Amino acid sequence: MAALASVTVLTLAVSTSADSGHLTTGTTTATGAGPIPPARSAALAPCMISGRTDVQMSEGVPTPAGYSRSTGTVRALTLMIDFSDAPGPGSALDRFREFFPQTREWFRTSSYGRLDYRAETPVNGWLRMPKPFRAYGTERGAPFDPGYRDLVQDIVAAADPRVDFRRYDFLNVLMTPNAGPSALDTVLSVTFAGNTEAPVADGVPVANASFVYSRQDDGSGSYDRTGYRVLPHENGHVFGLPDLYTQEGGGAVGHWDIMSEDWGANNDLLGWHKWKLGWLDATQVGCATAPGTTEYTLTPLARAGGPKLVFVPVSPKTGYAVELRTRAGNDETVCRPGVLIYRVDADIDTGMGPIRVYDSHQDSGGCTRSPNVHAELSDAPFKPGEDFRDPKRGIRIAVAGAGAGASGEYRVLVSRR
Ligand SMILES: [Zn+2]
User: Fold this and answer.
1) d(C-alpha 371, C-alpha 383), whole Å
2) Which residues lie near ion ligand 1 (Cβ < 5 Å)?
3) Which helix (H) or strand (E) segment is 201 a member of?
4) Which of 26, 103, 124, 312 could staple 320 via S-S, CB 3.0–4.6 A?
5) What are its GO biological-process terms (predicted)?
6) Rounded distance, CA 320 to CA 106, Å?
7) Which residues span the domain enclosing 379?
8) Tens of pLDDT along 243-274?
9) Are the C-beta atoms of 197 and 16 separated by less than 8 Å?
10) pLDDT tens-digit profile of 314-348?
11) What is the count of structural domains for the chain?
């Protein structure tokens, strides 16, 4: 299975002006609604870290305007595209069914029902582009100009007679799977998010658009069950989430977030991302600023209700996040349930390691052999009796105990000087 390790680096988040390295934000999306601010209160203010303005996609809270809303009902215009040199095989709706209803269900589960994701197909056949696929020059990491600009303009022109773009929050483009190389060779899937340079359709910019190519089929026979997962990853970008994998692959976060690994068995989002997306109430987030020792309770992240996230800010830009991960909901590969601890840095850009998970069992080899799951970090969670220390800053995060009974809650002690 060594060959598969190389395919864990998946997809790229590219902003409108990758040439200057600056994401232009501030205009509105198709529906005029940016991401809603996450649940907040005065007590949470020190935990709302933010990064420099030249960070393209930051882990900062709240997410800046320009991305799609991530709560309530969102409508995803979903178009199936083909080309004269890559004609769509079979029915375009069969291509649609590779991703739905699974993607809708994935978001419903992860958001505790707060995101009602509706994919609509006003054009239910293949939408033929006027130029052959190779003429657009869409390679891995291709910037928005010129190929993608041409492609989006051609998509708008071809779809416009049958589509009112004002009805939708973002665009999904499901390419015919025979356009471009196999995803085992190179993954072309990409999202242009918060794109103020986007072509305008029906008076609104196509500012948030996810493109999915090929099939993420690792040959293990699980494609029908797990192959859709590239789309929730790409849509994570339209909601403003950065990539958590780096040039070295999934070694920073492992399988603990779909923005890190979207091949293989299902996984959820980190609690930090759920807060950022507006899926946690203020009462579900603890902000650990007080000197001395404070006790917190955590309930399993995959289950609705109860406290989910403790954040220990160490600067206006960084801090430690603490949450309880168990095998439930979208988290189907968890092999060592426990308290996951990770560092969030709002100044580190997408794909550069803005989040790093701490491994409670370094160099153990991990506890999973599931394909396309970063094994070493699979046993990262801390158990009762174990702790994480940052001696320089005088911070200790200790797992005090796991509650008996059905609630499955854990107690965590945060100490800081
Ligand atoms: Zn990505």
Assistant:
1) 25
2) 11, 13, 243
3) strand 200-201
4) 312
5) proteolysis
6) 26
7) 281-416
8) 999 998 999 999 999 999 999 999 999 999 99
9) yes
10) 999 999 999 999 999 999 999 999 999 999 999 99
11) 2
